[in-house]
Amino acid sequence: MREREFWELLEEVLGRVYGRSISRDMKLTALDDMTVVEALEAGVEPRIVWNVLCDQMDIPDAQRWGKDHVAPPLPAA
C-alpha cells in the first residue's frame, strides 16, 4: 500500500473530515502512542498504520478495505 492509497482509504472508510482529524489527534497505542501522521512520517509502512488504526477503532475486516479495495499484501519481514 502506498501512502496515497492510505489517505484515499482513510477518507472512504472514515470520511474526509473525521478521518483527517483522527489522523492528527488519535494516539496509536500499538505504535508507541504516535499519531497516524507521526507514524507515516517516521517511516512506518502505511498498511501497518492502517491495520493498527482499524484495530484500535474496532473497524471490522469487512469494512476496513472499502468497497472497491482488496487488502494489499503484507510487507516482507
UniProtKB/TrEMBL annotation:
User: InterPro entries under this entry?
Assistant: DUF3046
Q: Which Pfam families does the UniProt entry name for this protein?
A: DUF3046
Q: What is this protein called?
A: DUF3046 domain-containing protein
Give the organism the record lists: Bifidobacterium aemilianum
